Amino acid sequence: MSKKLVITELENLGTAHRANRERVRNFIFDNPDLLPHLIDIVFEVDNKLSIKAAWVLELVCEKHLIWLLPYINIFTSNIHRAYLDSAVRPLSKICNFIAKEYNKKTDNPIKKNLSKKHIDKIIETGFDWMISNHKVAVKAYTMNALYIFGKNSDWVHNELKLILLQNIPKETSAYKSRGKITVDLINKK
To answer: From which domain of life does this come (predicted)?
Structure first.
């Protein structure tokens, strides 16, 4: 199977309605050998199809996060390149999935295979997203992932708290709400 098949599916995806995204996600489920092509397209950041590819990758990871593991180096090395908000939002959500799975008490493939380098790349990109002009959804998923990864690193919590306290007064009510929750969690630590 080829990248052209993935491109055709993405071109025919239509609007962002969940049913459309799930149709292409199911196509990837039926053809998992196409996942590397989907990931390639996600990181063709100047290609408008990268947005649709990111939407689909989010839904793939929502059900089969471990499918990302063979490509975790590619994912973590390239997430910083995404800049279109519609692509960054699903990537931030995937980072949140990774953080949540990593944080589980039981051993799991994410915990076993996610290296310090991978975590550091997610943290670094997360801080860039937090101080950039992204929408609240990106920042909400990101602050949660940073909070989780920061449990093992005081500097992450300190920096995250500083950013949140600086931005809460001037951000949207949704940001203020999520930011205050995160600051409270950091303070309870």
So the answer is: Bacteria
Res 189 pLDDT > 80:
no
Domain, as residue range, for 131: 3-188
For residue 165, the domain's CATH number is 1.25.10
The number of distinct structural domains making up the chain is 1
Read off the pLDDT of each residue in 120-149 and give the average, rounded to a whole number. Answer: 97
Q: Give 81-128 pLDDT, tens digit per residue.
A: 999 999 999 999 999 999 999 999 888 999 999 999 999 999 999 999
- Cα distance between residue 114 and residue 116, in whole Å: 7
Length of the chain: 189
Q: How far is the C-alpha of 151 from the C-alpha of 108, rounded, in Å?
A: 18
Single-letter residue type at 96:
N
Query: One-letter amino acid identity for 187?
Result: N
The encoded tokens of residue 166 equal 């600086």
Residue 46 burial class via C-beta count within 10 angstroms: exposed 0-12, middle 13-18, buried 19 and up: exposed
- What residues contact residue 67 under an 8 Å CB cut-off, 6+ apart? 32, 35, 60, 61
